[in-house]
Amino acid sequence: MVARGVTKRFGSMVAVDGVDLEIPRGSVYGFLGPNGSGKSTTIRMLCGLLTPDAGTIDVLGLRIPEQAERLRLRIGYMTQRFSLFEDLTVLENLQFLAAVQGLPRRDARERIDELVRRYAFEDRLDQLAGSMSGGQKQRLALAAAVIHRPELLFLDEPTSAVDPESRRDFWETLFDLADAGTTIMVSTHYMDEAERCHALAILDRGELVAEGTPAALTAALAGRSLLVQAVFTRRVQQALLPLPDVLSVAQVGTALRVLTGAGGREGERILDRIRRTLADSGLEGSVEACAPSLEDVFVAATRVRDREAIGATA
């Protein structure tokens, strides 16, 4: 999948602004970003549901949106909200989706039997979909999305309404699909899910602000994450937040996690400045470098833009 300069506007609002993507087959590729960052809009353009205002999209060798109808039979799409028929049973939903995808009757029976075993629906075939739990609905929606064995699967925040255990099981299923050759693009706002992806893109206000493997993205922040241990954590937080080189100060348990604007030699100077600030404020605390997290990557990518915007309007 290759996208170049993809842009989408809704009136005067630019929802997606010149996004470039290149996603290899058989990978699990994540879209990370806050609400309104353009994740869902980008996914809808990639699968042909929305027409971009600018840019080019090639998916599975097809030009999108010109060849979107041909693409439809080769992809699966699972939305954030449960979109199957709640007044139909599990079996009826799967039968309906098999018919929509054009599966011959015999192939449909075999495929449904396979999915029922894989997703543990043997004792729920006659249960109405609307009476199922969040995790069960999620499994049913995934089974429906892959009933025609798509080459590419789009998942738009698929775990937003399920418990942690169901989220973990869901991701194990995704990796089974990827191992079998399915390319998966999944949008999420959960950091632990983003860390599972082979690669990911961070979107902010429609722009691609960071891209790479989770390991590469966190490695790029070496020396910029600090851990502060102090007695009066809230007072320390208030003392550090105004410093120009500090992007964020977040309390994690009894400690503070500080993200700075630079590493290397400049990072050492920032570290000394933080220690002096604590001493000058009469606050005792230890400050040391720590391994950066994906959340640090996200904050660094988005918070710098916030500060630049403030500076431009000042």
Which architecture of the largest domain per CATH?
3-Layer(aba) Sandwich
Question: What proportion strand?
Answer: 25-35%
Overall structural domain count: 2
Radius of gyration (Å): 23 Å
Pfam families: ABC_tran
Protein name: ABC transporter ATP-binding protein
Organism: Luteimonas deserti
Domain ABC transporter: 1-230
Protein topology:
Elements: E1 2-10, E2 13-22, E3 28-32, H1 39-46, E4 54-59, E5 62-64, H2 68-72, E6 75-78, H3 90-100, H4 105-118, H5 134-145, E7 152-156, H6 164-179, E8 183-188, H7 191-196, E9 199-204, E10 207-212, H8 214-219, E11 225-230, H9 233-240, E12 246-252, E13 255-260, H10 264-280, E14 285-289, H11 294-313
Parallel strand pairs: 3-8, 3-9, 6-7, 7-8
Antiparallel strand pairs: 1-2, 1-4, 4-5, 9-10, 11-13, 11-14, 12-13
Structure write-up:
This protein has about 325 residues and is an alpha/beta fold. It folds into two domains: about 1-215, P-loop containing nucleotide triphosphate hydrolases (Rossmann fold, 3-Layer(aba) Sandwich), CATH 3.40.50.300; about 220-314, Alpha-Beta Plaits (2-Layer Sandwich), CATH 3.30.70. It contains eleven helices and 14 strands. It has helices spanning about 40-45, 70, 90-100, 105-120, 135-145, 165-180, 190-195, 215-220, 235-240, 265-280, 295-314, and strands at about 1-10, 15-20, 30, 55-60, 60-65, 75-80, 150-155, 185-190, 200-205, 205-210, 225-230, 245-250, 255-260, 285-290. Strands 6-7-8-3-9-10 form a six-stranded mixed sheet, with helices on both faces. α3 crosses α4 (about 105-120) and α3 (about 90-100) packs parallel to α5 (about 135-145). The protein is elongated, with a radius of gyration of 23 Å. The model is unreliable at about 305-314 (pLDDT under 50). It holds the Pfam family ABC_tran. This is ABC transporter ATP-binding protein. Keywords: ATP-binding, Nucleotide-binding.
